[in-house]
Write the structure tokens for this entry.
Amino acid sequence: MLAHLILSNFKSFGGRHLIRFGRLTLIFGRNSSGKSSIIQSLMLLKQSSRSLDRHEVAVSDGEIVSLGGPAQVLHRHDLSAQCEISPVFKRTVRTERLSLPLRSDNSTTHRKLHNQITMLGK
């Protein structure tokens, strides 16, 4: 079960934010408060996890969700920022952590995904 989600510099979430989930979680709030960004981050994780190429960057355009390029995914379109989407699961022996560094160097956008699986002791 998903215990919480860490979002950093993803769409409307600047900085680092911890979103807690329970057995039943309601997502509500004012317009432009990040409700859709939470759902889109979960869809991005699912879509990226289905990628056959484990060295591929996060799949931001696909069948599940289409988010555009790095400028549309990063908070305030800041191409020098690093984006993090980290799901943490309850009652599992591993935590999957996905980091989405998106930078711009000399007008060339470089995208790279770090998929790090940390094994936790029982």
